[in-house]
């Protein structure tokens, strides 16, 4: 079975008012229309009766789960970023989960690390995952590598991925060509 994984489509990362959107993610989306493409892909999966899962990064208000030594996430508590009790970890309105869709919360970059994602996918009978999200060179690439090593067939929907800039996007997509199939949303066929 195929499943769509929507990775870190959160207000703090992509919304223009998000805590880390200024790193380039909001502008990338504005230029490339990634969220509109992602919404169309979600609809294709839903119409086909295939699962759509959502992964988000976040921490409790105490930030006890936060990796304080991380160059990437170590300062989140200082800025109040990724607080699970706040607006920042809510999903962007364009790609928000429907009532019956599974939400996985993680505390690190990769979607599989210390989460129930692997167990959930295998219990559902999923053998092929389609990935889209932000940032391409962080959660998408990390999740692609891990999914590959867990024997899932992996497809990256490249125009539904958001990076801080075009260079990061191109480099990450090039890296993932070695372990995943890359497509654009218009080429997606679910039959």
Structure description:
This protein is an alpha/beta fold and 191 residues long. The chain has a single domain, classed as Isochorismatase-like (Rossmann fold), CATH 3.40.50.850. It has helices at residues 11-14, 25-32, 34-47, 76-79, 117-124, 136-149, 166-176, and strands at 2-7, 52-57, 103-106, 128-133, 153-157, 181-183. It has a six-stranded parallel sheet. The protein is globular. The N and C termini lie close together (11 Å).
List keywords for this structure.
191 residues, alpha/beta, Rossmann fold, six-stranded parallel β-sheet, 7 helices, 16% strand, globular
Which structural class should the secondary elements be placed in? alpha/beta
The number of helical elements comes to 7
**What's the CATH class, please?**
Alpha Beta
**What does the main sheet amount to?**
6 strands, parallel
Give the proportion of residues in helices: 25-40%
Summarize the helix and strand pattern as letters.
Answer: EHHHEHEHEHEHE
- How many separate domains? 1
What is the topological layout?
Blueprint: E1 2-7, H1 11-14, H2 25-32, H3 34-47, E2 52-57, H4 76-79, E3 103-106, H5 117-124, E4 128-133, H6 136-149, E5 153-157, H7 166-176, E6 181-183
Parallel strand pairs: 1-2, 1-4, 2-3, 4-5, 5-6
Concise summary:
The protein is an alpha/beta fold and 191 residues long. It has a single domain (2-187), classed as Rossmann fold. The chain contains seven helices and six strands, in the order βαααβαβαβαβαβ.
